[in-house]
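Thread: Modeling a multi-component assembly for a lab meeting

Hi all, long-time lurker, first post. My supervisor asked me to bring a structural picture of a complex we are working on to next week's group meeting, and I have zero experience with this. I have the sequence lines for every component (726 residues in total). Could someone generate the structure of the whole assembly? Inputs are pasted exactly as I received them:
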Amino acid sequence: MVLANLPRVAAISLVAVAIAACGPSSSGTATSKWKIALMSATGTLLDHNFSQYSWEGAKKGAADIGAKDPATVVPKDSTDYDKDIQTFVDAGYNLIVTVAFDEGTATTKAAKKNPNVTFIGVDQSPICVDEQGNADSTFACKGDASKLLPNYSSLWFEEDQPGYLVGMVAASISKTGVVAGVGGINVIPPVVRYLQGFELGAKSINPNIKVETSYVTTSDFTKAFNDPVAGKVLGAQLISQTHADVLFQVAGKTGNGVLDAACAANVFAIGVDVDQYLSYPNADPCIVTSAEKHLSNAVEAAIKSVNAGTQKPGDSLFNAANNGIGISPFHGKDNLISADLQAKLAAALKGMKDGSLKTCPAKCGQA
Amino acid sequence: MDALLHALNGIPVLGLVFQFVEYFITSLPFTAHVAVQLAVPICLAALCGVMCERSGVVNIGLEGIMLTCAFTGWFAGAVVTGVLGPGTPTPIFGFTVPLLLALVAAILAGMLLSLLHAWLSISVRADQIISGAIINIAAIGLTGYMNTLLSTQTLAATSNFSALRIPAAVAGFPVVGWLINALFGQGPIGIATVLIVIIFQILLFRSRWGLRTRSVGEHPRAAETVGIDVIRLRYRNVVMSGALAALGGAYLSMEATNAFQAGMTQGRGFIGLAAMIVGRWTPVGAFGAALLFASSQAISQSISVSPPPGDLGTLLSHVPTQFFDALPYLITIVVLAGLIGRSIAPAADGRPYQRESAS
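Re: Modeling a multi-component assembly
Sure thing. I ran the full set together rather than chain by chain. Output:
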């Protein structure tokens, strides 16, 4: 009898451990009134990339204002968003950071429902609401989110600018005249903006260059950003079938597989969002540079200004003008970068700062 | 020849078919290579399923076993690399001492987890579906949690097995060059998979072990009456099958990439189950089904990477990629519905065996 029950007990406790392991965690001493929580992008916190660096920023911000280390939760898919945010609200968290474009609707709803909780969204612009401040799924966006939802601000980046810069690098180091950009999914405007900027940047150096743009998927968010094996296979296929010799990844962990593919085939790779030479050392031999948005700084700054009461609601933009984006150092591959290219990069960056250089086509963010 | 093709392609509607065949043939060297890479982990999971179910034990824990082994292999590799140093990779396949030890660790982990499943489903006679489900759920939670814990540590970077480079002269060989490149332009686990499929097929249908395994899966009582130790054989097969799923997991974190990522199996274990069924519980069938599933993805990628020119390109670019994503499952439904011949499971599949007690 006892023996017969043993496996059942063992099984249940295993599941219990697994579930407990997924719960929010936090530590540190608190002197601040802010209890900070962070919801990562679907399926991943430690992506060596987008979610992780936003989290780093939140941790730094929390330390700056004397709050506890942020609690974190990793949603499994989009059906978890509402529930996870509500769990934080119920547990008394009053500053909630949500990371990723597709968490925008859930964050908007939560901001409307919980006016006493402050929300910071990363990459969720434009915040789209109707006249009453409800999340607007029709994307008519009739309401003014900055007035209707004073407790919600979205940090967004002009990804086309760093995309443009690395596009210039790609075009000038390509020997085959073909470069490729791999996006995770074509329905997320930031992903599309990166690749649109990339194409324009490449063409600005060499008008005849072929820019192959492909997306890992058009529907499956998990595959888009969490499947390095799929990324590697797609990368290898791009290299062999189109002869691309520079691969730019905009696909999170899936994209890390694209970097691996470039290394395996001895061609160049360009990282995304953060300096991937540092965040993904596996691909160091082939990473030339990365298109950066300064996520960590942006989240840290936002938390500090929320604490100071100066954070403006609505969309807050980061671009070249406020040093919100940039291009990573070349880490020992400087010999690939000619003086001519250096000058052109500097000129482009200057053009972005003063607004004279357009880095995105008319349908910016739409694939 | 070109003129003939041109003329054929110009025919309305039917021309599209010719164009597709032409495109298919020209892109075959690329898509076949990709398809085999995508098929390897699915196939290994399916082989694990075949071995289990042929001996009468249902194992839906493939996904969990693969994930655990992907984690164990990568982690063991990082630890051993930290202790012994990275070592010099061999020119072919990139073998290093830490990598080989890691592979052994991954296989042991797979066999251990299978032993748990064997104990639950053979000795305890627990519900085998639930036992498998537990393995899946626990694997996702535990590997995810440990990966989070480890992220704060600095681990030594691990290397991975490298693919065999087929010389251009061989790969460019007319008619069969692409096939050699697709099957053998892989890393050691990829190539081993092809060999395992062949050996397993022969053993299962041409050896004493195979006959006994099949009889234990079809009619254990009859097997027992002729002196086969059903319990022992089931134990042995389930534990051995764990090594196959372990290879599938190791493929993901040690050959396809060189690091573990939380949840990196991405449902490949479940697709492996489907491949097992579509392949009618035979190793070669499972390999074929895995290839079929993988090629729908490879072709869809090929279309997006370098679309065919002309009318066909316009047409195909309007096919939503979801169609290709769904294709493997549609095929599974068609097979399950018995439209392409029936796929019948071993008769005693999933039924725990109980010896008649003498007393």
